[in-house]
Write a structure and sequence with these properties.
This protein is an alpha+beta fold. It has 5 helices and 24 strands. The chain is elongated. The N and C termini lie far apart (76 Å).
């Protein structure tokens, strides 16, 4: 009985094999892939770098009036701007004012001089609708009064040096805050200090395998040109970097060894080819070969990411396809 059952089963299986339709071509095992398309993309060769930060001697902010500090919004690493008020003494706001000539006397309507011209020039820069003619008039007084709700009103007819805090530039980074609310200050007393006008920024150690080309240094989203040696030389670029949170913190700490990170990248991203890692053979250092339609092409490996290899191809005719896995018989490219 068992033999009959087995025989029947074998017969049924044989019939099924005999009657089964042939497998469609789409379901058959595919032949070995001998070429893959080469993708192209822009590549900025971005590298993380550590920066060395330096600053010249701090500039002191001094008070021209005696009294009790009744407000102070000073914080280390923050930005002090001309036309704003950071400190008040005895309830009177002190106006930050950047002038090329520090205010050395009280100015009255009708006064003339370089100091008058300097005050007017800054008021014009701040948007005041006045004529900077070196002659102090009521319009200049009103413009200054509007900056802080009145360091001196138009009827006073005077700009008091005691209500001005001189700044060396339109904006500067705070290095220290030396007067707090409730403290007493005197004429010549230290309110705080500013980062010196000379800031230096350079890359601590340049990567040795950078692609050729002009580069940018990016810190906290601010990108500026950087020299081949890794230093930032342009004064406007240095001023922009000095206002970034990371460099503010480093300068404000007074610790030049405090690490600051940045990103170094190509100013004009390069055109690179994206190929499978296995397609690159005969590799020596960063140079290798790829095989395209039987022709060996020299490439330079510039990076890799997520199972892809980025290569620079210097030949005039860029390959459209490469062999994904050249065998040992693949020809040399150099």
């Amino acid at each position: 009985m068992v033999g009959i059952v087995i025989s029947a089963a074998l017969g049924a299986a044989g019939a099924a094999l005999w009657l089964a339709p042939d497998r469609p071509p789409s379901l058959r095992a595919t032949s070995e892939i001998d070429s893959v398309p080469v993708a192209e993309q822009k590549y900025d060769d971005a590298r993380s770098v550590e920066l060395l930060i330096g600053a010249s001697e701090a500039i002191e902010l001094t008070s021209a009036v005696s009294g009790r500090v009744t407000s102070a919004t000073c914080t280390v690493g923050s930005e002090l701007r001309s036309g704003e008020s950071t400190f008040s003494v005895d309830g009177v706001p002190l106006v930050n004012l950047a002038t090329r000539v520090p205010l050395w006397r009280d100015l009255r309507v009708g006064d003339r001089g370089d100091d008058v011209q300097a005050v007017q020039d800054e008021l014009v820069r701040l948007g005041a609708p006045i004529v900077a003619d070196g002659l102090l008039g009521e319009a200049s007084l009103r413009a200054l009064a509007q900056l802080s709700d009145g360091p001196s009103g138009p009827s006073d007819g005077v700009i008091l040096t005691s209500q001005i805090v001189w700044l060396p530039a339109a904006s500067a980074v705070v290095a220290s805050c030396d007067s707090s609310v409730g403290s007493l200050t005197e004429i010549g007393g230290l309110l705080g200090s500013l980062v010196g006008p000379s800031v230096s920024v350079r890359v601590a150690a340049l990567p040795t395998d950078l692609l050729d080309g002009d580069r940018l240094l990016m810190v906290d989203g601010v990108a500026v040109p950087v020299s081949e040696s890794g230093s930032v030389d342009d004064p406007s670029a240095l001023a922009a970097l000095a206002l970034t949170p990371s460099i503010r913190a480093a300068i404000g700490s007074g610790d030049e060894a405090m690490p600051v990170s940045g990103s170094l990248m190509l100013a004009s991203p390069a055109d690179i080819a994206v190929v499978p890692p296995s397609s690159v053979y005969d590799i020596e250092g960063a140079v290798g070969c790829v095989l395209s339609e039987g022709t060996a092409i020299s490439v330079e490996i510039v990076g890799s990411q997520l199972g892809q290899t980025f290569v620079s191809i210097t030949t005039a005719d860029r390959p459209r396809f490469v062999d994904p896995q050249p065998d040992a018989e693949a020809p040399p490219c150099r």
